[in-house]
Amino acid sequence: MNLSSSPLFFFTFFIVFNTNQIKQPGHLASILVKNPTSRSATQQIHSHILTSGFLLHHSISNALLLLFNTLLRCSSFGPFPREAFTFYKHLQHFPLSFDSFTYSFLLHASITLKSNNPGNQIHALTHKLGFHFHVYVQTALLNMYVACGSLLLALHVFYEMPDWNSVTWNFMIIELVS
């Protein structure tokens, strides 16, 4: 899926362009438009945000969270999923409130790595922070455990879910049949 066709990208693009406090917002957004899956583009935006002091402006935290989630998504779906964890580690030192999309993208990075070890850590973190009942996080957890071959852990997540939707049922049916 092309990043520029994502609704999250367009929302991020709109917020970044309509926030007056951000210096050169068009430059950051245009980098993602021109190179939606480029490693160097995401690294360039990451370094620009860290060195420019954007994180010190509390009034633009929502716009930055959307931009960060877009960068996490690019990293986790791309060929360098470890960068998603490195990027998240850098972001933990700043006053940002992450959302369920942040953790679902990190869980997808675990799938891309084909390792549930970082996913287990994110799972514990979502419990600690109260995101374990968010539908995006639950579905990403289920997907991660199924993709990494941990059916018992996937069943545990499935049974903990307060509501089962068609996506979660499909994951479980496909895995149990195969």
UniProtKB/TrEMBL annotation:
One of its GO terms (biological process) is RNA modification. InterPro entries: PPR_At4g14850-like_plant, TPR-like_helical_dom_sf. It comes from the Eukaryota. GO terms for molecular function: RNA binding. PANTHER family: PENTATRICOPEPTIDE REPEAT-CONTAINING PROTEIN (PTHR47926). This is Uncharacterized protein. It comes from Prunus persica.
